[in-house]
Fold each of these.
Amino acid sequence: MSPQLLSIVTLWAAAALYAVAMVAWSIRLSRVADERVRARAGDDAVVAEAPAREKVSVAAGAAAPVDDAAVAAMASGATSFVVDDGEDDAPPRSAADRALGAARAAMYLGIVLHAVGLTARFFEADHVPWSNMYGYTITGSFTAVAVFAFVQSRRDISYLGAAVTGFSTLTLGLAMTVLYSAADGLRPALQSFWLVIHVSIAIISTGVFVVAFAATVLQLLQYERADGEREVTGGALKRVGTKARNVVVRAAQRARWFEAVPSAQKLETVAFRLNAVGFVLWTFTVMAGAIWAEHAWGRYWGWDPKEIWSFVIWVLYAAYLHARTTSGWLGRRSAWISVWAFAALIANFTIVNLFFQGLHTYAS
Amino acid sequence: MARMKLDNYAVADAPRLGLRGWARWIWRQITSMRVALILLLLLALASIPGSILPQYPSNATAANEFVASYGWWGRALDAMGFLDVFGSAWFTAIYILLFASLIGCILPRIGVYWRNLRTPLSPAPSRLDRYEDKDEAETDDARLALDTAAAGLRDQRVLGIAIPSRIVAITGWRVRVDERDTRDGGRELALSASNESLREAGNLLFHLSLVGILASMAVGGLLTYRGQAIIVEGGSFTNAVVDYDSFSSGNLFDEDELDPFTLTLDELDATFADDGMPEDFTAHVTFQEPGDDAFSTTIQVNRPLQVDGGKIYLQGNGYAPDITVTDSDGNVAFSDAVPFLPQDGVYTSTGVVKVPDVTSGDQLGFVATLLPSATESDGELVSVHPDLLNPVLIVRGYTGDLGLDTGVPQNVYVLDESQLSPMRDEDDAVWTVALSPGESVELPDGLGTFTWNDTSRYAAFDLRTDPTLPWLLAFAIGALVGLAGSLFAPRRRLWLVAPLASEGVEGVTDDGTPVTVVRAATMAPAHDAGAAEQMRRVLDAATGRSRRVEKE
Ligand code: HEM
């Protein structure tokens, strides 16, 4: 098999596996929600039925501090343990656990195949695959899932799984269908080790921002859900806006899976920690870009469209970090700033690459 | 909220300022922070038009065209600075204000930080059992245990080398140990430690570095120069303002500082793939400083040549057809390689030959287009590849006055046709010929001959110096390190308390030595899962406890 074919086949397979993972993460979310609701309703019953068992599970939860969702899963694990007749020694597996297993398996397999696909592309092109939008997109979709998988391995953020794998399914699919271009040589302007440094860090930080953004969206939904529907008043535009918002709020309130989503405050912490990592990496990206520009073009900064947008993104995330420590801005408002920053990030990869002329134009 | 409390110096500073000072300080902090936030948002917003509208500094032609084609709209945008956003008054105002706010914010915080460092830590709380993360272990020597803990915390190493304790107070733990009375009349040893300084140090370093970056850029703008020199293969260039094709410099740049070296372009290698995509450009050059030996080296697109007076970049390249023109009297009026400007990816290039020095009669001018790999397509000649596979030169001639004597500097790539008329053939059609290399052609009306001898390549070199680059790099690294510290440095407090003397005897070991219980507690932001573990490690080391690490 030629590297080209291998790359295409494995990337498609990865996209398909991410789609499977997305479904499994969604199921996991709704099962955790179900069990949480059930656990809440049936707490007394369980304790009455098997007090000893319940104690075991609570003790386990206390020994290793874990996330709410995991505690819920554990508690429900105990529930099913009680229901089992207890003959086999296999650890109890609830529906949520099974979905988690399936999601993980599909996601990890997807990551492995995705990595193979990227490597094959590297051999096909004979250089790092970051010289056009296709290359960025297949790598960016990889780093998003990889960042998620990494964080997920350390603390339970499975409520973000569906969004992240969904994002990667979509972007990888778009890359394979719309953006695909056969590999070719590397222009002299790109023949630099700074390409590897600058672009790889840019793509990694994008992956981090994607996961943070997923958390931010949930955070904002939590606020709106808590606020409930609003009265439709004001001018036509405002009415449409409020109506649209109410539709979202109703959907969020009705969605059972939302029971498994942590509190807005917790989501804000998760989003902040990711955004902070992303911001440091982005700072490095901009600096490395300036050093490279100094080498290649003889000036470190020239307000080229790509440079302008990298700067805008950087400033917006800096504003987000300041907003978090400005009284009255932590929470909803700072979250919105990070949404704008993320929108600028996506615009930088799409609109700016496609429509703006500049020294970076060879990227498209 | 806990985060705000720990981060905000207004609060940390509270006890010493009194209530009114405190309120004022908070108010100032909040307002300036809000102002900083708004300025940051404005800065982002104000930058965007710079990417959408054509900008004079990067593309003056496009900007002029924009003004011309959008009528009063174009003129209005131009007048308001939208076609030079980053030099406009409003953009400058925003970032000057931002940096004023930044400096106004940073200076007092440095003072506060400095004083905080010199203020002793607050002693350990008398009761540790109200903290969530706590632990205890037994020892037979409380003093030794706390001394061990204190020494361990103060000991910070980088690559095995111990950091001096003054610096550890910033980069690591500050520690104090008190011997004090307990409530019930006994004595106890209390260790209090905090590693919260690094975070704020990082934040200050970051913001200061931003100021440094801006200052370096401003100074760099004054001290820098940038020039472009076009050298045809075999030709050379001497580093003096008159030898540059274009030259610009900052207000404080002294032209006498140009180091009078010479740069000779021996050869320019340009390789292209079959589809015409460039693969490599390498300029083989000889560089000589007066009084020094010449040396040969190469300059590539991403590999500028670093010389004493700055850097030399390979910024462009193209073809320079070697052309000879004889006049009507048969004398050679012009003979030189003329750099042509590439117009597209396949190096279809245009150039201009000005022949002012004819023996008699009108001056001559030529406009020529070079097609490196000409083929016929729909009855027209086009080029399909940047290499000279089938070079063709299409020439038109003009006679008249080239307009060189007006004193106004002329663009060497453009023929001013205002006082010229095209040469015409016998049929009175505009005279145009297509030449092959080595071919010579008679001009109409016995005006002379035009010969295309052969074709060299030329290189366009940018020369630039900016003495502030090392400073910029240093400040950029400072900003990055500071930022990482500011965002990731842990903020932990740690306390160990052990009763002394008879009060502490809670038991006796088998061999009769008294046993003391050392209590420990720690406080850290909620997400910092490592704090409790560190506390246990410190306690282990202090008491010699060996712990089975349970992971279930
Ligand atoms: C050029 C403009 C500025 C940029 C790019 C910038 C950038 C940043 C960044 C990235 C952080 C995050 C670090 C952290 O959260 O610890 C930060 C924090 C901070 N900045 Fe700025 N800053 C700027 C101007 C200002 C100004 C004018 C002030 C004064 C009001 C200020 C005060 C602060 C403070 C107090 C923090 C600490 C926030 C915290 O507690 O985490 N900054 N800044």
Note: The two ends of chain B are 32 Å apart (CA to CA).
Amino acid sequence: MAVTMGMIAGSWICIMLYTMLYGDNFVSRTAEHIYMGLIAAYRFLVNFDFYYKKGVLQAVSPGGGLFVIPVILGILIYARLHEKTRWVYRYPMAIIMGSMLGITVRTTVFSQILDQVKGNLPPIAPLVGVPPFTLVSNLIIIFGSLSAVVFFIFSQEFRGPTRYVHRFGRIILLLGFGATYGNTLSYRYELLAGTFLSNMFSPPEILPYTFGFAAAIAIILIIGFKTGLAHWD
Amino acid sequence: MTEAGEKTFFEKALDLDHRIIATIVFIIISLFILVPVSLPFPVSQYGQNYYNFVKSIPEGEIIGFMLSDTPSTRPQLESASVLTLVELWQKNVKIVFWEDEPYGPPILKDYIALAELKLGRTVEYGVDYVDLGYIAGEETGAAAFLKDIRGLTGGKDAYGNNIDSYEWMKGINSGSDWEYGFFNVACRCTEPLYVRQWQMPYGTKVGSINCAMDLPAITLYLATGQIAGTANGLLGSAEIEYLTGNIGLAFGQTLAVSFGGVYFTILVVLGNIFFFMAKAKGRPVT
């Protein structure tokens, strides 16, 4: 496969960004500013296109009168850019927050409370007629969930046998946080491996450009650190 | 520290510079991508359930597919997304795409091109799929879209064509018109959004393509069946590659990530051992 300028730019920007791991330096900052600028411009363009096609054009089409309201509210967001009109942007923001909250709460009770509670109890977590490993898992799910809820009862002190329930709840929560941390770590490795594979090592013809640029950046940084232009913090 | 003020081996190990740790990670990841080795590969229940869900979709079904992958998560989720499309199009399933992330539209085009390569035929716009484009507004946007597709899009697809010009789209106007659906939410943890606004109100059976980081947040949804299956991160992609017999991009990365994980686990274990050894010797440790 032929190596394109886009592939080389992708690889080099990645290398420049990763130099941040060796201390905040001008190379990583340059890449960061290029990246942020491009992303901001791209996101603005795509969202503006949506606003224009699904909002403005519908507002001026027959029967689309109600679309005038979101179009005006959208413009008012930019009132915050001027000191004297800053207060105006609170109105569209309040409407966004309110409608978002209303839409979210509408089905949350069923989808995230009732169904989730059901998921922690038989028959979804059965205790009869299941293999021993499943039985132990389901017991942990049932008692772990209940104990974790008990941990958040702050209105009374746990004494006697109940303190063990409280303590078990804390252990379950810590195990949950540990699992989340492990998954997050795995995800970060996946991001790293994915970036390496798709941006820096693929296609194989790009390898000389990647390693050549990495070596050049290493030399620039070493010179920078030695001369005090960059700091090894 | 010793009486002479020098650090012991354990103290030096505990104070290991993060730049050295990062360099070793770079070396391990690079090495196993460039020089892969063969390891046994068991398929998890999550991967198997997701594959079974894809397989359970009947011939010729019309389904919804929200695809919002991002450039950074694409290497992990590309295989799962593309192979899902291949499996669906092999059954002549018609797909209605939309995206709730600005990065979605160009990535969708790439995925369709990759799926065509795997299928060995071209998929025809308006016959095999329709793209309704980027839908802004996160949850409110998704709720409005799934309630009244024509109301929000003005009856136009991503290219400005009238969606009623496609015969099979005439009966499709809300989430309830799809019995099956998929969402690729990358790593934004927005699976509950689509359970709240799609699966729950309209009863659509949904499958999720998501990053590994999201798994703890959706485990219960999987247990209750609110999400029918998940292609969970890179491992999920590798599992779909394995199950469909299309070994590729995800497999190479899985190996690198596994060895990266082993390296980190060793660091954690050694860190704990050194911590307690230094503490047992009465050294001040932080």
Note: Residues 125-202 of chain A form one domain.
